[in-house]
């Protein structure tokens, strides 16, 4: 990336610099590569370090850059696709779904989830915790709530706790008949526990994806997945007919 002087433009200088830096990231840097320090970058583009910091902060917010302690500012990997279409239906835990089981416990579901499942606030459910990692970094955390009636063959003897227990719940869920599912997506802020798991600060923007899985008797399970908003994009439809992702307009077939 050679020396570049910014032209006089009507838009804010940091925003124009962000555009120039974004093009440089595409052309001159590989995923995971460390950028030059702020002093060198500011000199190359002939801007104040305050202007440079604004541009870098915007690129970090958009998921193009990552700032890591002891490493510096690196080029972020491509965003993870989050399929929110309704063309495909599958139970969580199917081969290749990208999630890693972490733990499973029995506890009452949150009030909103209990209402969806048709349970009371004191009813116990299986709570499966899973994470999704790409390029070595956590990008999503999920809590899957499964009533005991949805996994009647589950035994607490073979897998009492931990990842083995989580896999057992998922395996038993696969035996049930799946009639369909629906998803709702909303923008939220990372709670303290989510932030720690996703390596974010509390209050960082996240995508909350709630999925209901339907069986013959009604809602068989509910998933609440928290995605880092800076590392993910939403895709709609089995063939990706519509996509929403960074620096590009939505497109429809």
Question: Could you give the topology of this structure?
Answer:
Elements: H1 13-28, H2 38-45, H3 49-61, E1 65-68, E2 72-75, E3 80-83, E4 100-108, H4 111-117, E5 124-134, E6 137-147, H5 162-174, E7 180-189, H6 192-198, E8 205-215, E9 218-228, E10 232-236, E11 242-244
Parallel strand pairs: 3-10
Antiparallel strand pairs: 1-2, 4-5, 5-6, 6-9, 7-8, 8-9, 10-11
Please, could you describe this protein's structure?
The protein is α+β, with helices and mostly antiparallel strands and 253 residues long. The protein folds into two domains: 13-75, Arc Repressor Mutant, subunit A; 80-244, Chorismate lyase-like (Chorismate lyase), CATH 3.40.1410.10. The chain contains six helices and eleven strands. The chain has a six-stranded antiparallel sheet with strand order 4-5-6-9-8-7. Strands 3-10-11 form a three-stranded mixed sheet, with no helix packed on it. Helix 1 packs across helix 3 and helix 2 (38-45) crosses helix 3. It is elongated, with a radius of gyration of 22 Å. It starts with 12 loop residues before the first helix and ends in a 9-residue tail after the last strand.
Concise synopsis of the structure shown:
25% of the residues lie in helices and 33% in strands. The chain is α+β, with helices and mostly antiparallel strands and 253 residues long. The protein has two domains: 13-75, Orthogonal Bundle (Arc Repressor Mutant, subunit A); 80-244, Chorismate lyase-like (Chorismate lyase), CATH 3.40.1410.10.
């Amino acid at each position: 990336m050679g020396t570049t002087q910014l032209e006089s433009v009507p838009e804010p200088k940091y925003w124009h610099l962000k555009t120039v830096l974004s093009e440089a990231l595409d052309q001159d840097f590989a995923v995971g590569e460390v950028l030059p320090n702020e002093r060198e970058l500011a000199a190359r583009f002939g801007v104040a370090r305050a202007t440079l910091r604004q541009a870098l902060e915007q690129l970090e917010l958009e998921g193009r850059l990552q700032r890591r302690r002891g490493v510096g500012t690196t080029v972020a990997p491509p965003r993870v696709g989050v399929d929110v279409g309704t063309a495909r239906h599958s139970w969580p835990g199917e081969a290749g779904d990208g999630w890693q089981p972490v733990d499973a416990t029995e506890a009452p579901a949150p009030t909103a989830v209990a209402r969806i499942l048709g349970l009371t606030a004191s009813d116990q459910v299986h709570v499966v915790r899973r994470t999704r990692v790409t390029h070595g970094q956590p990008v999503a955390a999920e809590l899957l709530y499964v009533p005991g009636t949805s996994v009647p063959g589950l035994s607490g003897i073979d897998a009492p706790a931990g990842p083995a227990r989580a896999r057992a719940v998922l395996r038993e869920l696969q035996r049930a008949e799946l009639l369909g599912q629906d998803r709702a997506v909303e923008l939220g802020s990372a709670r303290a526990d989510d932030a720690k798991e996703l390596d974010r600060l509390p209050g960082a923007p996240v995508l909350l994806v709630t999925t209901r899985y339907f069986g013959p008797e009604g809602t068989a399970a509910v998933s609440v997945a928290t995605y880092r908003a800076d590392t993910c994009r939403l895709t709609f439809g089995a063939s990706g007919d519509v996509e929403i992702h960074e620096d590009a307009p939505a497109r429809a077939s």
